[in-house]
Amino acid sequence: MFMKKSLAFLGVSIALIFFFALAFRPVGASASAKFSEGNPELPDSVAKIIQKACLDCHGDNGNGMAKSHVNFGKWNTYDVKKQAGKAYDISKVLSKGSMPPGKWRKNNPDNIPTQAEVDLIKNWAKALNN
After folding, report:
1. DSSP string spanning 32-68?
2. Cα–Cα dist 25/4, whole Å
3. Closest by CA position to 46, among listed 87, 79, 80, 16
4. Residue ranges in the chain assigned as alpha helix (H)
5. What is the pLDDT of residues 79-98, one digit of tens each?
6. What is the pLDDT of residues 93-115, one digit of tens each?
7. pTM for this structure?
8. Is 26 left (phi over 0), alpha (psi -120 to 50) or beta?
């Protein structure tokens, strides 16, 4: 009887540790890993910008039209040439200020990419296209 209680306690303890490890991991960790797996040309700094400013529309749960242009949930399925082309397009629309769109900017003012972040994306895209 004591052995059964000990095993049950051990099982519950392990389950709680696992639950807390998943529940309290850093928010950006999964997105950065998702974008960087198999794609060394997508650095964590770029993934963080994409996570905060692009995924609402351009992620798997985003807008259909937005995903038709670029879906970061499928980024790893794009070949290197397609990634380079998409990166160039992303840098153009960010530089023009047409992305993120105005309504999103109004509702998410803290997530609008800064000029330094836009410059980082431009440099990343330029490096991919050389």
Report:
1. HHHHHTT-TTS-HHHHHHHHHHTHHHHSTTS-HHHHH
2. 32
3. 87
4. 2-23, 27-36, 44-53, 55-58, 64-69, 80-96, 102-107, 115-128
5. 889 999 999 999 999 999 99
6. 999 999 999 999 999 999 999 99
7. 0.67
8. beta
